[in-house]
# Entry
Amino acid sequence: MTKPFVFKARVNVADLFHHANHQEVFTTALQKSESLSHFVLKIVGLCAISYEQSAHLNAHSDRQKPDVWLEDDTGYITLALYASELELEEIARVAKLFGKVVILSQENPTWFSEISERIHVVENVSIFSLESQFVESLSDALSRSLHWDVVIEQNQLSVSDKNEYYETQVTQLV
# Structure
């Protein structure tokens, strides 16, 4: 059994869309069963939703929890973010459990066309797509560090890791 690859992360986030700046410092691990693209989407998702309150990261791939989430004082998950493409039945199931569901995925027109005709039946879901090249470039850069400067704008996201600069359009599909 191989051990997970551990990162000491430091992420500075300038969220121009929500007029908020914050820093996230945490230790996390890439689990042996987790893809690099899923891991990157999870970290980007953490940056995107933690502007108001501290977000929780599912660092142990617990299947009972979303990848990233916000909760209220009672422990109820008010916002659940999934960094993967879910089937429509799974989206409907988790939408009943949580206040709001956000899906963050790499662009995949085939997956979206399969669920797009019936996704309107789920009211509390938003789906966002990032360009594949952006996710792949960040995945490749993980071997250097997880010290990112992130800028979030209306429909754009950029990440700098002190060596390179990465930028993508953020497309809201639903």
Notes: The beta strands are 5-15, 20-30, 56-57, 68-71, 77-82, 100-106, 125-130, 147-152, 156-160, 165-172. The CA atoms of residues 17 and 154 lie 5 Å apart.
